[in-house]
Structure formats: C-alpha cells, structure tokens
C-alpha cells in the first residue's frame, strides 16, 4: 500500500504509476486519529490513500485525482458529510465516485435514510466491525477495476472501429485503382493483340501465332481475375436484402443459363431433385449457385457423360443442400484449401479458372450465417454441401 500524508497547501497532481492506473481512496474526517485508524485498517490493500480533514480539503483533492471510493464522516465543522456528498454528486467530474458514510452519532433510521438519500452506497455506524468495512471497500476496489477494464475495452473497440473504417476506405480506393488503373493497360494489350490477329495472323509463323493467341487468352484471364477479385472484395461490405428464394427454380434457371452459353457440345445429365426454398439475398445466392454449378461443369469436362446432381436433406434441424458431380474430384488431404483465395488443386493447363470462385461462395455463405464444406476423391468426383442460417429460413 502507498500512503499520502499531505499538507493542506501542497496538493500533488495525479500521475499514473506504470501502465496500470493507481487505485485511490479518499478518507474524510475532521479528527486525525480517526483518519489514522482508517489508514491502519486499509494499509494492506493495494491502494493509495488520501486524507482530508475537512470537506473543502476533500473537494480540492478531487480536482487533481480520480478516486475509486470516498469514506466520509458525517459530523464535521463547516461542511458536514451530507453537504460534501451533495457537492460531489452535483459535479460531473466527481458524480461517479461511490462513497460510504461513517458516523458515530447519527445512528437512527432517519439519518441512515438521509445518508442513502444523499447518494451513499453504504452507511456504517461506529463502532463497526473492521471486516465489514474491509469487505465493502474491497467490493468497490473490484468494481473500480472492472470499470477501468471496461473503459479500456471500449477504447480499444473504438480504435478497432476507426481502423476498420480506415481499412474500408483503403479497400474502396484499392478497388477503384484495380477497376480503372489496371483495366486500362489491360484493354490496350487485349485490343492491340486482337488487331494483330485480325490483320496479321496469316503473316505470322506458327510460333508467332501461338504466342499472340496466348497473349489474348492471358489478357482475358487477367480481366476475369480482376472481376472476381472485385466481386470478392465487394462481398465484404455488401448489404443483405433477405427474402424467400425458390432454391429449386434458382438451380434450374442457373444451369440452363450456364449450358446455353457453352460453346462445345457436352453430354451432361443434370439431375435436380425437389429441394426446399430458403431465406436469403437472391442476388448473392444466384452467384453462389452459379459458382457451384460452374465448378461442377468445369471439372466434369473430361468425362464422356458428365453427371451433376442437386438434392437436399434435413440434418440436426438444418436443411443441407448438396451438389455432386462425377468429375476430377480432389485429394481429401488438401480439402481445407478449397475455399481459399487463389487456392487451386488442379493445374491451370487442365482446368482454367482464377481460384476465386469457391472463396466467393464461402463468403456468401458466411454472410448468410451458414456453413459450406466438401468431400471428394481424385477422379471420383466431388460433393459440395451448404446450409443457410438466416432467421426466417424454412
């Protein structure tokens, strides 16, 4: 315990010792022997004690210190304890300080009630049991510590919010740069390359034709990657507009749109079982279903007959949607990488793509408070599962 036995004219300024705030207790009594007795009783506590022999001296101390607790005698000349309590309560800086009245004279119920009416958290009459006072003081010490921890947590939270807002602004700036600054030279590369193909392709030898075709394809892939990355970043701040969604119709319409755009003839068996409607943002769920079906179509392209199945089932109070295919599958050892950005389990030369589609799917599921996972085996197909957990889901 640290003690402060201060001359009335010399009031020190408040300083914090180390990184942990010092817990300070104010003792107010016009009789020095009572202050000494309180000091001896509280000396083993990890606090700093301040003694004041009048209400005015107590008020001066509160100008420079933040007290966790005040122990106030009631009967004092000039300004009694009730008046001091009233002044403490009326000042914004000190209104939060809890105080305990200690009295040897005013023991009747009227004065005790008056003490509580003045804002006292407790009222102790002399002579008192030391353990009773110690327990009450310890309670307010613990309470003060908790309040300080809460304030620190609140300050950290405010800082985190400021940092998040800053990161959000930086992300918007980055997205703008990606969208404009990178697209412009990319469009030039693609545009001039296509001109070369249209006007000079026949003049190039086979190696030159191969290289210019590769440049055009790379530019297209880069443009697709930029689009996917922008979509991925936008999902982090996109607002949800939930409503009932017919998931059966959504899978059917999405599959039809995807296969209508296919340039090569594929033999695909699409098996869509009756599945439940659900609750979510339709635009996001359209992107989710598009990514999952596109994934199935892509990785079954080497199969003579591609089979893609969509169904669902109840499990532990949730409805699970399932998308299965008989395609390339994947090694179960690496399935944790499936939903990471730029994580690919197959060669680009075998299956093109940006490695962002499943990461977008996972983020969409995250916004819908659901889960997504997968299992599969190499050359034996893959199965993707997901749930939607928004309130109001069927």
TrEMBL record:
List, alphabetically, the InterPro entries matched: BphY/WalK/GraS-like, CheY-like_superfamily, HATPase_C_sf, HATPase_dom, His_kinase_dom, HisK_dim/P_dom, Sig_transdc_His_kin-like_C, Sig_transdc_resp-reg_receiver
4-aspartylphosphate: residues carrying this PTM: 73
Keywords attached to this Swiss-Prot or TrEMBL record, sorted alphabetically, are: Kinase, Phosphoprotein, Transferase
- List the residue ranges forming a coiled coil, or say none: none
Q: MF terms per GO, please?
A: kinase activity
For this protein, the record's Gene3D superfamilies field holds: 1.10.287.130, 3.40.50.2300, Histidine kinase-like ATPase, C-terminal domain (3.30.565.10)
- The EC number(s) given in the record are 2.7.13.3
Name the catalysed reactions.
ATP + protein L-histidine = ADP + protein N-phospho-L-histidine
Name of a matching Pfam family: HisKA
| Stretches assigned to the Response regulatory domain | 24-141
Q: Which domain of life is it from?
A: Bacteria
| Record-annotated Histidine kinase domain positions | 177-392
Q: What is this protein called?
A: histidine kinase
The record lists the lineage as: Bacteria, Pseudomonadati, Bacteroidota, Cytophagia, Cytophagales
């Amino acid at each position: 315990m640290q003690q402060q036995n201060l001359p009335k004219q010399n009031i020190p300024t408040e300083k914090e010792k180390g990184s942990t705030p010092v817990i300070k207790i104010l003792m107010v009594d016009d009789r020095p022997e009572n202050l000494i007795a309180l000091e001896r009783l509280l000396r083993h506590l990890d606090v700093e004690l301040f003694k004041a022999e009048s209400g005015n001296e107590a008020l001066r101390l509160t100008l420079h210190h933040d007290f966790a607790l005040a122990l106030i005698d009631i009967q004092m000349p000039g300004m009694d304890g009730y008046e001091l309590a009233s002044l403490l309560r009326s000042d914004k800086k000190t209104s939060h300080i809890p105080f305990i009245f200690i009295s040897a004279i005013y023991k009747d119920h009227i004065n005790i009630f008056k003490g509580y009416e003045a804002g006292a958290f407790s009222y102790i009459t002399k002579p008192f049991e030391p353990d009773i006072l110690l327990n009450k003081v310890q309670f307010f010490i613990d309470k003060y510590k908790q309040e300080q921890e809460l304030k620190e947590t609140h300050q950290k939270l405010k800082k985190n919010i400021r940092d998040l807002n800053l990161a959000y602004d930086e992300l918007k700036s980055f997205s703008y740069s990606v969208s404009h600054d990178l697209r412009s030279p990319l469009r030039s590369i693609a545009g001039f390359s296509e001109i070369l193909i249209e006007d000079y392709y026949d003049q190039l030898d086979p190696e030159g034709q191969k290289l210019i075709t590769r440049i055009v394809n790379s530019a297209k892939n880069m443009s697709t990657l930029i689009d996917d990355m922008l979509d991925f970043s936008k999902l982090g701040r996109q607002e949800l507009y939930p409503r009932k969604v017919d998931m059966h119709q959504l899978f059917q319409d999405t599959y039809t749109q995807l296969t209508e755009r296919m340039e090569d003839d594929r033999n695909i068996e699409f098996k869509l079982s009756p599945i439940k409607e659900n609750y979510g943002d339709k635009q996001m769920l359209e992107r989710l279903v598009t990514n999952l079906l596109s994934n199935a179509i892509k990785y079954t392209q080497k199969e003579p007959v591609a089979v893609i199945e969509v169904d669902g089932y109840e499990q532990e109070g949730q409805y699970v949607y399932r998308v299965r295919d008989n395609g390339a599958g994947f090694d179960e050892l690496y399935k944790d990488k499936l939903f990471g950005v730029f994580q690919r389990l197959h060669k680009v030369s075998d299956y093109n793509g940006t490695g962002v589609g499943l990461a977008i799917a996972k983020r969409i599921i995250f916004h819908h408070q659901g889960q997504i996972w997968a299992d599969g085996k190499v050359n034996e197909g893959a199965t993707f599962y997901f749930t939607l957990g928004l309130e109001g889901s069927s």
